[in-house]
Design a protein that fits this description.
This protein is α/β, with parallel strands linked by helices and about 170 residues long. The chain has a single domain, classed as HAD superfamily/HAD-like (Rossmann fold, 3-Layer(aba) Sandwich), CATH 3.40.50.1000. About 25% of the residues lie in helices and about 20% in strands. The chain contains four helices and six strands, in the order E-H-E-H-E-H-E-H-E-E. The chain has a six-stranded mixed sheet, with helices on both faces. The protein binds magnesium ion (MG). Magnesium ion binds next to loops.
Amino acid sequence: MKLLCRVSPRVAVVFDVDDTLIHSDSGLEITAGVDLFHSCVASGAHVFIVTARPERARRDTLRELATVGIVQERDGTAEGFVSLWMMPNGFTADHVAEYKMRARAAAKKAAGGRFLMTIGDQWWDCVGSARVEEQLVHKTEPDGVYVLTDMPVREPATVAIKFPDLFDDS
Ligand SMILES: [Mg+2]
């Protein structure tokens, strides 16, 4: 599957890490996610990476991302992501949905409060409310990818792309 898009410059984009950019089991790249990442960066978007990995895993996470060609931008040039946000140490799985939604709001604000696109393999990467999930859970997309445009009112993201839980990108 190919997921390429052009987004307007100065738009904020949030990517999850595990099973969005990198296969969590093998560490290999997820082509659709990495291609989309590079498309967004090339378009001049402000790209933020938001993971539920704990802060103590920052060094390993940056290294793993670098192995699939994803690096932080340097000196404000649009070569990579703006910043990597990780869950504060001590947070648990119970905090993920709230943490991710707050991170989306912060990314949108950091980019000037414009349009925000979010990409991930879990519903909490897409929506802070279960309402959209409830509407879609009985509907199956052929490739398992959902593109959500009808977002809940309190959700910071304007558009969300949900990857399948297990991405077959062969
Ligand atoms: Mg994930």
